[in-house]
Predict the 3D structure of the following.
Amino acid sequence: MNGTRRVQAVLVNLILLAGVVLTLFPLVWMFSVSLMPANEAVRFPPPLWPEAVTLEHYRTLFGHLDLGLCLRNSLLVASLSTILSVLLNSLAGYAFAKFQFAGRDRLFRWMLAAMVIPGQVAMLPLYLLLKHLGLVNTFAGVIVPGMASIFGIFLIRQFVRSIPDSLLDAARIDGASELRIYWSLVLPLCRPILVTLAVFTFLGSWSDFLWPLIVLTDSERYTLPVALANLMGEHVQDTELMMAAAVLTLMPVLLLFLALQRYYMEGLTLGGVKE
């Protein structure tokens, strides 16, 4: 019996190891190609690691792009989107979890049903609405449509439901206002799931390409993915240059994920405070 379990454990570990290798290989290869000379990058079969490491492609990117401006634009858009999304979704999730109002459950079911509608369907009417409001080619036009998300509201609601009602009632008896309860009690208890939502939102906003491409027309306001995509249009055959651009786009979010992974994992695994 012990031998059977040992074999099963070895098989499971081998399968997990294969999954890790398959997951990491594209990232390692992308980084490797970004450091290869052009003649090595187009070789078949491609080498796994460059024979002669070069930073020429990164120098080319820095020479063609105002990288500081693009990074600042991306950081501004992603940070504001994250802060506003966490605030709005936590307020809505708290309301759906702990307040009784007419049509609450029906409204929540309609919201969940709306998740099956592809986002591309709403792009044209949303663009026309932003144009009417004068928000085209502004950072607000990029940020505002994504401030509230059904997924975020659902995530917060499920977590807040696990907070004991007696805890909130005790705060009300002590004279705390609803806003004080939300800010001083609910938000601290929801920290793991808020960090998880913040990581999701920041990653999505940082790597978002299509909507900023539609809304932003001035190159001075381009985010990093849009600026890199325009540059790639001029160097579409340069695989190694595209890989260097992908590495530059990936590194900030990878560092953010590594810095917050402890909270991120807590948010995915914790069920909240149990009564």
In short: The chain has 14 helices and no strands.
